[in-house]
Amino acid sequence: MAPGQIFQRNGLRVVDDPNIGHFVVTDEPIAERDVIVIWSGERISLAQAEALSAKEQDYLLQIDDDCFLLTSLDELCTADFINHSCEPNCGLLEADTLVAMRPIEAGEVLSFDYATSDTTSFIAFDCLCRASSCRGRLTGNDWRLPEVQRKYAGWFAPHVQRLIDGAESG
Asked: If you ran DSSP here, which 8-state letter would residue 104 be given?
C-alpha cells in the first residue's frame, strides 16, 4: 500500500486525457456501498491548508471543520485522482471513506461531489463535469444549496452534516 492511504480497492487506474486531465476508472464492477478508498495523510489545519500551493490544495480532503488530510505530491495514490462530478457515482460513508453510491460497471469513471466534504472558501473552481445537472461553479458553500442537501442526504461527511443540521435547527 502506498504512503498516505489506508485502503484502496483493486482495479482502479488513472487515465490521462490531454484535454481534461487525469481521472480514475474502474476495471472491475463495484457493488453499491463497496469501499473505494479510505484516505489517510498528515492532518493539517485550515490555516495550514490555505498556505499551501494551489496544486497541493488540489489533493486535500477536508475531514472536519478545521482539519484536512494532506498527502505529499510525491506520495499520491490512484484514488487521489478521483474527480468531482455533479452526478457522481461515489459518496462519503465517513469523512475519509469513499464508497459506491450505486452499482458501478467496469470502465466507468469514478467521481464524487466535493460539496459533500468541502466547506472552505479556497475550494472554488469552474466545473467541467458536463453532467446535465452541472452547477457550473463549485464553491465551499455548495453544501448550503437545498437541492444539494436533498440529493446527497446520507452521503455527506460528518462535519458537513453537522453544519446542515445546525442550519436547519437555527
From this structure: B
> Structural domain tally of the chain?
1
Q: Which domain range does residue 47 map to? A: 5-169
Q: What is the pLDDT of residue 154?
A: 96
Sort 41 into a burial class: Cβ within 10 Å, 0-12 / 13-18 / 19+.
buried
Report how far residue 148's alpha carbon sits from residue 48's, in angstroms, rounded to the nearest whole number: 28
Distance CA 123, CA 112 (A): 15
Burial 135-148 (b: 16+ CB within 10 A, else e): beebbbebbeeeeb
Residue 170 DSSP symbol: -
Element (H, E) at 56: helix 54-57
Indicate which CATH number applies to the domain containing 57.
2.170.270.10
How far the first Cα of the chain sits from its last, in Å, is 44
Q: Where are the alpha helices (DSSP H) in the chain?
A: 46-50, 54-57, 146-151, 158-169
pLDDT exceeds cutoff 60 at 157: yes
Q: In this predicted model, what pLDDT tens digit does every residue of 91-126 receive, in sequence order?
A: 999 999 999 999 999 999 999 999 999 999 888 899
- The CA-based angle 4-101-36, given to 5 degrees, is 25
Q: What is the mean pLDDT of the chain?
A: 93
